[in-house]
Amino acid sequence: FLVALIAAVRIRTSRDALIAGLVFGAGAVVLPNILAVVLVMAAAFLVPSRRRGAGATGPRPHAGAALALLAGTALAVLPAVARNRITNGDWTLASQGGVNFYAGNNTAASGLSIVLPEFDPQPGWREFVSKTEAFAASEVGRSLKPSEVSTFYVRKGLAFWSAKPLAALSLQLKKVYYLLNGHEHPNNRDLYSDRRFSPVLAILLWHLGPFHFPLGLILPLAGLALFRRAGPRSLLIYLIVYGASVTLFFVTERYRLPLIPVLLIFSAAGLHEL
Question: How many helices (H) and strands (E) does the chain have?
């Protein structure tokens, strides 16, 4: 993602956009929600920037560059999609997106981890895929392709929003708070417990009352920089869209991690402002 962002900030021609798309696509195979960033970034090429000249930041508006960015991304994900088609007969890039969406949007969801109200106890990592697929198939009454399983759980998550809009909105606001909070919310390992095994981690990761380092320092400094002056449009799109995509599911430290390097850039600018 860092290589892709470097390429995106430097886009001036369709060739530059194609290269950025290829690298973004490679990342999308591992973390598909980056595709939301690519779509918004491509749309941004069609919106003229107010700043021009020597001090301009961000790519120049260019329909050809937008198409090249999308084409490069598609080329990079095509081998993974083709492999999925060969192995399971389904044209899909990621089959677990739906169940992860539902895990973060249901009556029992915490916003911090996978919680599915239909399972008690919750399925372990080894049997998670098979059990969630079996449940979807039993509800529909037939065997389902991976994309159909994903669609099944997306509909359940949207049904929660439709039936309980206030509860869904409250949960969404909680996830935004978790995204911006300095505490590193664990996924399958607790970083704070691991500090005792790593002197380096003990130095880099600590908290004093409500203040948590590093995000408790990085985020305010980055916010100062963004308040005082805009940054490259590609980086702003990345921060906003990727962060929003995480809150659609659930927030843990490893899903938030891709935001940190870019926030570090802006926090350095904030430190310079001080």
Answer: 14, 2
